[in-house]
Design a protein that fits this description.
Blueprint: E1 7-10, H1 24-37, E2 41-44, H2 56-70, E3 75-78, H3 84-96, E4 101-104, H4 114-127, E5 132-135, H5 138-141, H6 147-154, E6 159-165, H7 172-180, E7 188-192, H8 197-202, E8 207-210, H9 217-228, H10 232-241, H11 243-252, H12 254-264, H13 281-296
Parallel strand pairs: 1-2, 1-8, 2-3, 3-4, 4-5, 5-6, 6-7, 7-8
Length: about 300
């Protein structure tokens, strides 16, 4: 199993000006926090990193800033774009900037077919020398990867894992087993959707692609290490302690909550890119109360 797509992958926001200029100093502070927490990997320019709202030059600057401060922690970079030629250019630039892998979502205005998405990944995999992680995010791309399509893609050289949304907890064991049966043994099955990720890890998921870990890496690492150690009761208990944050994510969206939380932690004053609006003052106070609670909940990670 490739160690790159295992454990906790933290997804920070990308602080930027209203004009879309990345604040590399603020991004560097976020990345440094993640490196010091010893997360397993860092992914810049995911959905939480608002990749779709940034120009190609700014995306490159973000990757360069992250790689320069991540130290031994591998950096993965999102390269999704509408056009295949832009995806290829973004992939080459991510590779040149020092990314250890890329995360590819099939972004499209016109709904894509399975064959079109397969062709996209086949083209990119043939071009790049660094690994590719499939980004299955139907909530933003409106394309859902079937189990069979993931199985087809897993046979392509260079495609080493998938970032899947967590299914309903009651179905996660069954769906994980069904997917595992379709991919090579060394293909990483990872999950996003923070509030249910603990169950996916306990079901055998190799990676948690976490929004919350972008600001609260130690708390999220504790959950991952407990799951890796097979301590199901502790995993669920640690996850339950995060429920106030999960509730805000579900109600207000994780992206808006993360920007508000970063403000509370004095890590940036940047807001989400327009037309996304920051939270209301009342909701920001709700976020502040949860952030203060999480500051007191800072368990030491359990060694797997």
């Amino acid at each position: 199993m490739n160690p790159l797509l295992q454990g906790l992958s933290a997804f920070p926001i990308t602080p930027a000006s209203p004009e879309g200029v990345v604040d590399t100093q603020a991004l560097g502070m976020l990345v440094t926090r993640l490196r010091e927490a010893d997360v397993d990997s860092i992914c810049v320019l995911g959905s939480t990193g608002t990749y779709a709202y940034l120009s190609r030059p700014e995306r490159r600057r973000a990757i360069q800033a992250a790689v320069s401060l991540a130290g031994p922690v591998p950096v993965m970079a999102g390269i999704g774009a509408l056009r295949t030629d832009d995806v290829l250019a973004l992939g080459r630039e991510a590779q040149e900037a020092g990314a250890a892998a890329v995360l590819l979502a099939p972004v499209s205005y016109t709904p894509l077919s399975d064959d079109e998405v397969f062709g996209l990944f086949e083209t990119v995999a043939a071009e790049l020398d660094i690994p590719i992680c499939i980004y299955n995010n139907p909530g933003t791309t409106h394309f859902t990867f079937s189990l069979d399509l993931i199985g087809r893609l897993s046979a392509l050289p260079g495609i080493i894992g998938v970032k899947n949304p967590v299914p309903d907890p009651a179905k996660v064991v069954q769906q994980h087993a069904a997917l595992k049966a379709r991919v090579p043994a060394d293909f990483s099955l990872g999950y996003s959707g923070d509030w249910n990720a603990s169950e996916a890890l306990l079901a055998g998921g190799q990676a948690w692609y976490s929004v919350a870990a972008g600001l609260f890496p130690r708390q999220c690492l504790a959950i991952v290490r407990a799951a890796q150690a097979g301590q199901a009761d502790l995993t669920r208990s640690l996850n339950e302690a995060m429920e106030p944050l999960w509730a805000l994510f579900r109600q207000l969206s994780s992206l808006r909550v993360m920007y508000a939380a970063a403000h509370c932690l004095d890590l940036t004053r940047c807001n989400p890119p327009l037309p996304i609006l920051p939270l209301s003052r009342q909701d920001r106070e709700r976020v502040r109360a949860v952030v203060e609670t999480l500051a007191d909940f800072n368990p030491c990670p359990i060694k797997a």
